[in-house]
């Protein structure tokens, strides 16, 4: 097997750090009733209009608004985000705080980290890759706005990446793999 073929068979090591999902329940919610029925909540209406509902499994924090809108954060996968929302909806139903409504869940953003098999030549990457910004005096990472998939990736010389803006996990894996292959092809990944 040639060295070039071997290089492209490697895959980046990707880890999902946070999934943010928005939720619409087609009904209003009495936040004070949630406070009276649950201990794992924070509600300070004089500081913020939303209530924070924390779960241990999956470990998430979900903002709940009286309008029936919710925002779930902290999940480590799309599946976990859905599980957290459904668990909260079930608990609210059990306490008769909401009726039988089906939550409309939309993943808004996935943040992931990745490790490439080598170091990245950021000085050359900024002139070789399109849609980049790199000011090492301000920030040690290169900002790369990938077009397809439409994500933003922070590249660090160590070979570490942070990917944001994906709306599904496939986008994250596709972006990391595409970037790695592009860096290899352009001689920007140093082994």
Residue share in β-strands: 35-45%
**N→C terminal distance:** 18 Å
* Largest sheet data: 10 strands, antiparallel
Mean pLDDT: 95
Given as residue ranges, the uncertain stretches (5+ residues, pLDDT < 50) are 1-8
- Label the overall shape: elongated
The computed structural class is alpha+beta
In spatial order, strands of the major sheet run 2-3-4-5-1-6-11-10-9-8
**Strands, total number:** 12
Number of helices: 5
Measured as a percent range, the helix fraction is: 25-40%
- Radius of gyration from the alpha-carbon trace, in angstroms: 21 Å
- The ordered string of helix (H) and strand (E) elements is HEHEEEEHEEHEEEEHE
Please provide a written account of the structure.
The chain is of the alpha+beta class and 191 residues long. 29% of the residues lie in helices and 35% in strands. The protein contains five helices and twelve strands. The protein has helices at 3-9, 31-37, 78-94, 122-128, 169-185; strands at 13-24, 41-43, 51-55, 60-64, 69-75, 104-115, 119-120, 132-133, 142-146, 151-155, 160-166, 189-190. The strands form two sheets. It has a ten-stranded antiparallel β-sheet with strand order 2-3-4-5-1-6-11-10-9-8, with helices on one face. A two-stranded antiparallel ribbon has the order 7-12. A hairpin with a 4-residue loop joins strand 9 and strand 10 (151-155). It is elongated and about 60 Å long. Residues 1-8 have low confidence and may be disordered.
């Amino acid at each position: 097997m040639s060295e070039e073929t071997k290089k492209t068979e490697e895959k980046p090591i990707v880890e999902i750090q946070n999934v943010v999902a928005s939720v619409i329940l087609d009904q209003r919610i009495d936040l004070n009733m949630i406070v009276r029925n649950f201990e794992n909540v924070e509600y300070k209406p004089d500081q913020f209009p939303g209530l924070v509902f924390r779960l241990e499994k999956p470990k998430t924090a979900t903002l709940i608004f009286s309008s029936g809108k919710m925002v779930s954060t902290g999940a480590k996968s799309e599946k976990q985000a859905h599980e957290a929302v459904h668990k909260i909806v079930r608990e609210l139903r059990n306490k008769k705080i909401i009726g039988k409504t089906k939550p409309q869940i939309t993943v808004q953003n996935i943040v992931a980290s990745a490790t490439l098999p080598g170091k990245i030549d950021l000085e050359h990457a900024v002139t070789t890759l399109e849609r980049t910004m790199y000011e090492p005096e301000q920030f040690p990472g290169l900002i790369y706005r990938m077009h397809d998939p439409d994500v933003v990736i922070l590249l660090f010389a160590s070979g570490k990446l942070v990917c944001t803006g994906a709306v599904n996990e496939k986008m994250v894996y596709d972006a990391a793999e595409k970037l790695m292959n592009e860096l290899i092809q352009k001689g920007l990944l140093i082994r």
